[in-house]
Amino acid sequence: MTSLLILIPVALALGLVGLGAFFWAYRSGQFEDPEGDALRILSDDDPPKP
Known about the structure:
The protein has helices spanning 2-27, 34-42. The chain is mostly helical.
């Protein structure tokens, strides 16, 4: 029973950290151009290395 008193706040804190990371990523523009990122992986525009 005492382990629940520790684990429930830890689980809530981890959920809040995950939610905060999602909102940080959303505000920083990580989800604005998902199709461009997918196509950029497939392009072969890397300059040749000397």
